[in-house]
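Quick question: who can interpret this fold?

. . .
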Amino acid sequence: MNIKKIKVNDEFEGKRIDAYISSVDTQLSRTMIQKLIQEKNIKVNGRIVKASYKVISGDEIEIEIPEPKEINLKPQNIPLDVIYEDNDIIVINKPKGMVVHPANGNPDGTVVNAVMALCKDSLSGIGGEVRPGIVHRLDKNTSGIMIIAKNDKAHINLSEQLKNHEVKKTYIALVRGIINENEATIDMPISRSKNDRKKMSVNRDGKNAITHFKVLGRYKDKYTLLKVNIETGRTHQIRVHLAHIGHPVIGDDVYSNGKNEWGISGQCLHAWKIEFHHPITKKKMELEAKIPEYLDRIIKELKEEN
């Protein structure tokens, strides 16, 4: 158990404890601090407090950081399409059908298993026991670009960039139906579906979710190709938003009522591009993931038929 102690100065009085600790200790992200508070590992003057507690000058804060749990995952020599790699991060093009981290029903064969073999001991531990290095994720049947952190410092910085909406993600999506607007924004909150706990849905009591899209092409009076950007990163966000407005992603077996006219496995949704600042060098990074063959083939066929 690693124990840190901090004494609050006058200048920080009145600041929320989670915000205060993250500002004076750059090794701890606000998300991680909130988790420690929930687990009662942070005390003020010997008392357990909530994340909303506002610090007072002279407060003595004690932070107990548990030892990292032993990772029981096994590295697996699974080929990965590596777009970029240095000492701090690795960026890959995840194929559709590959799960990001182990879970019930998917104990191995995941991105985590593959990067453990590729990076050896160079992965951040902040993601937890089964998510080493994982900063953000993609659905199993969504292909595309992902950043993985090789150390805790890189992980913390990337997490902060994501939280502050400083990471720009651009997707390519082929949807059913013709969208008449050339570009638009979907601003609808999303939460777990009350009817099916495996699905998400638009719900006014849900969390804020914002999706922007621009039309790249319209085909056969049946399909629309979109470039999509998201401000928020809710579970299934793009798929839920597009299905809600009547234009589900082609091949989506959850939100398109089982329709799959192209007979493909996986949906026509690809995380194409990502823009961020390198977590250590601060250099502006713009990286792209090649569109998968199956989606590229469908788009070309539609363009030819047009």
About this structure: Residues 293-305 form the longest helix (13 residues). The mean pLDDT is 89.
